[in-house]
Design a protein that fits this description.
The complex is a heterodimer of chains A (141) and B (540). Chain A is mostly helical and 141 residues long. Helices cover 56% and strands 0% of the residues of chain A. Chain B is built from 17 helices and 20 strands. In chain B, strand 7 and strand 8 (179-186) form a beta hairpin. The chains are: A mainly alpha (141), B alpha+beta (540).
Chain lengths: 141, 540
């Protein structure tokens, strides 16, 4: 405890004299870019609970004729982990929101497929931008 | 070796790598007890800084060894520690601890902490409460605990050990005041196994196993419960203070999120653990305070286990030491041939195993059964099967996806589980076997056949632990039948065995899930079960 007390005194002194480090958001992005850990937009946060509603019932596949692995795989397989989202956009191919409208309308669980696609593609862009050093902070939408 | 958790498999690996002849016996499956119900974290030991910096240093050092030996199986977890107005520990005290912890982070290839203003933290995670004062980050490692146990067992086998899962020790064999082996029930038959030394690494069952030998090991078992959400719902892990002041964790773990854990004295039947709705509500309440709306997210599972904490009187469960102790029963009670390893935590398993095997070799040397210099532990120098420091998982996954026509995410997950051996799993399979059976993890038919042939899989639950099959939102409603039929082909099951196993697996998944269901997720489950009711959907 005494060593922590000394550390605490040093910490407070650094804060008072303005020598404290700590980093801020840009430092976080820099540290974790290689691990593909990025933030999430507030719009996506509002939609997020809906992303997990997929029943894997397959109805959406009947209403879909776009490229890639399709809406069911998008919802239940490839978008489950943030670090996988770069891989996910490869699996999804050049999918456009318009290709998902009919599938979204027929989904009995109400999965917001177009929002999920937007989140996936935007996150992948962020990760790519961060890996190339062109993004320093998550977006604040 | 009795016990196939992370400690037992770690001891088997260490002993086999020192050239000892080893039989590992696990009554259920690898990691099925405490290890698999853990938070799946290789913690460095921030909490020890309060009273013992040396333990923090040792803990971080061993976490570093585990990082190197488990390689691809570890993933980085960035914790965001939100500081609220009325938290027990304020911003400055918390940052002081993290500044101290930063000194040890390089030992485990960890990153230094970052201090964030409230607006910066909300920019990273906009769901955080408006009551946020600021936040600090802390770097740790996550791991698939089932796969870690299995790879330890596989490594032991590759070093010459014999490995039996689903084999239960029913009694010990004695020669005077010496344990000389055990009776083991396996596949309905009883085997007498002779051994110079027996190690009790049975975790919360330590007391019962020691009791069979007539010696005493005292634990204070503590029950821990987690909720599992269907996907990573945050990019960062979060800490939250529960109503009783305990600290809980939300961990983005592989492709799910774990919320937990409870920590309560446990006096019940270790083989029949149940999760209660109160325990789930306790966890959810803590995180609603930090991330409002978290109870709207989909719960797909709960986990429960019992920590084999060393006994202490008059202490709160959370304050009990996570230290371990090697019990030499010859020195303590005059019973030779038996060593117990008790207590500890997942992130110290390698060190615990090394100390245990040191005790084994010392007793063997005293008995004149080991001559010359005692063999030393080298587990920190050798990677687990499939681990290669030169492996670039992203490049490997990209190549596998292109070469074998599987999806990029599926290939990534395969590389995560198998490392450099992922290519063998796909290459050895027939062309059609690259199709996905579980479409939420995802898991291919090829991997199921590989697990049945090479990974000691005996039923669907074993398969789930090896591959994470049925770890997605449907919890096996979609894939369990198909997976059972593939497993049945490999293991020689009849059609009725396939049907029974499918039903058993689905029922068990449902019973685990029910206590965690909230009002919103009940409605989701009604839809889910209706969608997969026989006759409604092809294949259901």
């Amino acid at each position: 405890m005494s060593r922590l007390a000394l550390q605490y005194a040093a910490h407070q002194a650094a804060r008072v004299t303005g020598r404290a480090g700590g980093g801020g958001l840009a430092r976080f992005v820099q540290l974790y870019r290689e691990d593909r850990l990025m933030g999430i937009g507030s719009l996506d946060r509002r939609e997020f609970a809906g992303f997990g509603r997929c029943l894997s019932c397959g109805l959406c596949e009947f209403a879909f004729s776009g490229p890639g692995v399709g809406p069911q795989a998008m919802a239940s397989e490839v978008t489950r982990a943030f670090p996988d989202l770069l891989d996910a956009v490869e699996d999804l191919g050049r999918l456009e929101p318009e290709a998902l409208r009919a599938a979204e309308a027929i989904c009995p669980a109400g999965v917001p497929l177009t929002a999920l696609l937007r989140f996936t593609q935007a996150s992948a862009e962020l990760i790519t931008g961060s890996l190339h050093g062109t993004v320093e902070a998550p977006p604040r939408d | 070796m009795i016990g196939g958790g992370v400690t037992g498999t770690g001891v088997a690996r260490d002993a086999a790598m020192r050239g000892l002849s080893v039989l590992l016996v696990e009554k259920d499956d690898f990691g099925q007890g405490t290890s698999g119900a853990s938070s799946g974290m290789v913690h460095g030991g921030l909490r020890y800084l309060e009273y013992d910096w040396r333990t923090s240093q040792l803990s971080c050092q061993d976490a570093g060894f585990i990082h190197r030996l488990a390689g691809h199986l570890l993933f980085r977890v960035a914790f965001l520690i939100p500081v609220l107005d009325d938290d027990k520990v304020g911003m400055e005290k918390m940052e002081t601890a993290l500044e101290a912890y930063d000194r040890f982070q390089p030992l485990k290839d960890g990153k230094p902490h970052v201090r964030l203003r409230a607006d910066e933290a909300r920019s990273l995670e906009p769901g955080l409460t408006p009551r946020l004062r600021g936040a600090l980050t802390m770097d740790e490692w996550g791991v698939d605990p089932f796969r870690l146990c299995f790879l330890n067992a596989l490594s032991a086998a590759e070093a010459g050990a014999t490995v039996w899962n689903h084999a239960k020790v029913t009694s010990f064999l004695f020669a005077g005041r010496r344990v000389v082996g055990a009776r083991v029930r396996r596949d309905g038959a009883e085997h007498e196994v002779r051994a110079l030394m027996t190690v009790n690494a049975a975790g919360p069952w330590n007391e019962a196993v020691a009791g069979m030998a007539g010696v005493s090991v005292r634990l204070r078992p503590a029950k821990g419960v987690h909720l599992v959400l269907d996907r990573r719902v945050t990019s960062v892990a979060l800490t939250a203070e529960a109503r009783d002041g305990r600290e809980l964790l939300l961990v983005p773990h592989e492709n799910t999120t774990l919320l937990g854990t409870t920590d309560d004295d446990f006096f019940g039947d270790l083989d029949h653990l149940e999760v209660t709705r109160d325990e789930c509500a306790y966890i959810t309440e803590a995180f609603e305070r930090v991330l409002p709306g978290i109870s709207d997210y989909r719960v797909i599972n709960t986990t429960v286990g019992v920590r084999p904490t060393l006994y202490a009187w008059r202490r709160n469960e959370d304050d009990l030491s996570r230290e371990y102790e090697v019990f030499d029963h010859q020195a303590r009670e005059g019973l030779a041939g038996l060593i117990t390893i008790a207590g500890g935590k997942l992130s110290m398993f390698r060190l615990m195993a090394q100390d245990t095997v040191d005790a084994v070799t010392r007793q063997l040397a005293r008995a004149g059964r080991l001559a010359g210099q005692l063999p030393v532990g080298t587990t920190h120098l050798h990677g687990l099967p499939g681990v290669d420091p030169g492996l670039d998982p992203a490049a490997e996954a990209s190549e596998l996806a292109a070469r074998h026509g599987v999806g990029r995410v599926a290939a990534s997950r395969l590389v995560y589980r198998h490392g450099t051996r992922a290519a063998q799993v796909l290459a050895s399979a027939a062309e059609g076997a690259r199709v996905l059976v579980c479409r939420t993890e995802p898991v291919t038919e090829a991997e199921i056949r590989h697990a049945a042939r090479h990974e000691w899989v005996r039923d669907l639950s074993d398969l789930e632990r090896r591959t994470r099959l049925a770890h997605g939102a449907c919890q096996g409603l979609e894939c369990a039948g198909w997976a059972a039929s593939i497993l049945g082909e490999e293991l020689g099951w009849s059609a009725s065995q396939v049907a029974d196993e499918t039903e058993r697996f689905r029922r068990a998944a449902w019973e685990r899930k029910v206590p965690g269901l909230t009002e919103a997720s009940w409605a989701q489950e009604e839809l889910n079960r209706a969608a997969w009711a026989p006759g409604l959907v092809a294949g259901g």
